[in-house]
């Protein structure tokens, strides 16, 4: 067991999945949860996925925990950390699951204590569903979890790594800025594009929503799944990973403009070259066990 | 049984799935196939999915068929139609499965005979895999098939509709231009965007391919599946549905630019409004049984 007492703050898809996985695998002895929403706390109690659940900031839980994982939207992580750090146990670990890391580190750092190890994290896992009932224990199996340690304490990093490995993940350690650029490419910009395209389709005056729904099986539906992800979380991601997102979006628009030009000028060779080179990466993703 | 003898020209994913489905459901009595590739013809024979298979243009098969379905890349449909129409039986039906319809109608029309009914079609179904071994009989179940009839013969349209319904599809009749605009929105532009984004990620100097593969589970992998579709087919789609594709792409780029601006100026309300409105269409797609 990596940690005796675990506090999960925020009982959404990720938080409730960590709770379930920690219980199922024995990665934590006692699992405590808190959430600002009374109805979410009620749901957690009804589902029985935690040993204790409390509404609000739950200082009494934070004071007991060996590991506190913040599973709130990225824009709230710094405030919640500032609230809980003063009451945390000496020697405890503070982590999070935010999809961006640079802004989290920047926001939390001023509130840090020398005797609490801050190790931001990001499990690369999720579904388009939200809330405590959407979670499941297997969510992290065979998925990567990135840790961006902000403390020199190698023993605490080893423990948190062991925790995620017990949940079924592989762990990759990198610095926050690199995480934000890599994830801008593999996650943030794909989400922005999916949200945009689904919006474009909804707004087409000449095409009815009924037609979009009927004929969605040939490409569009995959975008709607991505674009059904939690709106608040994604707003926070884009506002806090602004530079990397805009850099990748600009490159994407350049590349799309080049293909537009090829279409307009009937340059089939350019199209074929582009379409042929993207197949290989799909095969590599399947080989790496990261397909669906 | 809607048609006694069926000829499928082109034994790729769609052609071989039609063959399997027609045999499995009894929608055709005899299923013949032809393909320009000797190795594909061999594979068809080995798989036993047709009652006869021939290499090349197979005039002897075309002369026997009550229904000929062209399952070749969109750019080849007109040439194959021109080759086969002169030998087809009087009273037979000529159809296709091309992802675009306007250019198919334009290319085939000069070669038409009064005694052959031309009813272009497009089954909205597919996977990212290609070739005769990728096909399966259930591919069309619970999927829509669009027919854009170019003949006044209502009886023949009813027969082709019954054929597709026997394969498990629902049939929607519309005119070619409307098909091309609707599909540009739900299929062609989503594919162009997926091909572009996967290319952008591959070309990022700062992010390795290994990182893209490892962290693909949070959005990117869905794009790689779409971008693994048949390159030749998609080149032809964009070259032959140029106007509708460019119209939808331009709207998409406008919408993406607006979201870029919202990110740059930290306008969270605009982002949240956009992200919240796209959830509803996902629910409608699930309700319509068009989710995965």
Number of domains of chain A: 2
Largest interface: A-B, 94 and 94 residues
Q: What composes the largest sheet of chain A?
A: 6 strands, parallel
Please work out how many helical segments of chain A DSSP would assign: 13
- Total DSSP E strands of chain A: 9
* Computed structural class of chain A: alpha/beta
Beta-strand percent range of chain A: 5-15%
Corresponding CATH architecture of the largest domain in chain A: 3-Layer(aba) Sandwich
Order of helices and strands of chain A: EHEHEHEHEHEEEHEHHHHHHH
Distance between the termini of chain A: 30 Å
Give the rounded overall mean pLDDT of chain A: 94
By CATH, the superfamily of the largest domain in chain A comes out as NAD(P)-binding Rossmann-like Domain
What does this structure look like?
Two copies of one chain form a homodimer. Chain A is of the alpha/beta class and 292 residues long. Chain A folds into two domains: 172 residues, NAD(P)-binding Rossmann-like Domain (Rossmann fold, 3-Layer(aba) Sandwich), CATH 3.40.50.720; 110 residues, Orthogonal Bundle (6-phosphogluconate dehydrogenase C-terminal fold). In chain A, the strands form two sheets. The first copy, chain A, has a six-stranded parallel β-sheet, with helices on both faces. Chain A has a three-stranded mixed β-sheet with strand order 7-8-9, with helices on one face. In chain A, helix 4 links the parallel strand 4 and strand 5. In chain A, helix 4 runs parallel beside helix 5 and helix 7 crosses helix 9. Chain A is globular. The model of chain A has no long low-confidence stretch (mean pLDDT 94). At the A-B interface, helix 7, helix 8, helix 9, helix 10 and helix 11 of A face helix 7, helix 8, helix 9, helix 10 and helix 11 of B.
């Amino acid at each position: 067991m990596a940690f005796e007492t675990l506090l999960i703050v925020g009982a959404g898809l990720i938080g409730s999945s960590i709770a379930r996985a920690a219980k199922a695998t024995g990665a934590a002895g006692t699992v405590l949860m808190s959430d600002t929403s009374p109805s979410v706390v009620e749901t957690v109690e009804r589902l029985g996925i935690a040993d204790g659940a409390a509404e609000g900031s739950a200082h009494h839980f934070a004071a007991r925990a060996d590991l506190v994982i913040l599973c709130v939207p990225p824009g709230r992580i710094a405030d919640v950390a500032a609230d809980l750090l003063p009451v945390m146990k000496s020697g405890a670990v503070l982590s999070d699951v935010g999809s961006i890391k640079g802004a989290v580190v920047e926001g939390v750092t001023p509130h840090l204590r020398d005797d609490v190890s801050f190790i931001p994290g990001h499990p690369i896992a999720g579904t388009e569903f939200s809330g405590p009932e959407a979670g499941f224990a297997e969510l992290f199996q065979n998925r990567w979890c990135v840790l961006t340690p902000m403390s020199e304490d190698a023993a605490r990093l080893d423990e948190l790594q062991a925790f995620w490995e017990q949940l079924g993940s592989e762990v990759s350690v990198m610095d926050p800025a690199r995480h934000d650029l890599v994830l801008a490419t593999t996650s943030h910009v794909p989400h922005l594009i999916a949200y945009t395209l689904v919006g474009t389709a909804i707004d087409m005056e000449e095409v009815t929503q009924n037609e979009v729904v009927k004929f969605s099986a040939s490409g569009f539906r995959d975008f709607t799944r991505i674009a059904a992800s939690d709106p608040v979380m994604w707003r926070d991601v884009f506002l806090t990973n602004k530079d990397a997102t805009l850099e990748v979006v600009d490159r994407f628009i350049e590349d799309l403009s080049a293909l537009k030009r090829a279409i307009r000028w009937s340059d089939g060779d350019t199209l074929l070259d582009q379409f042929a080179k993207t197949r290989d990466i799909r095969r590599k993703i399947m080989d790496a066990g990261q397909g669906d």
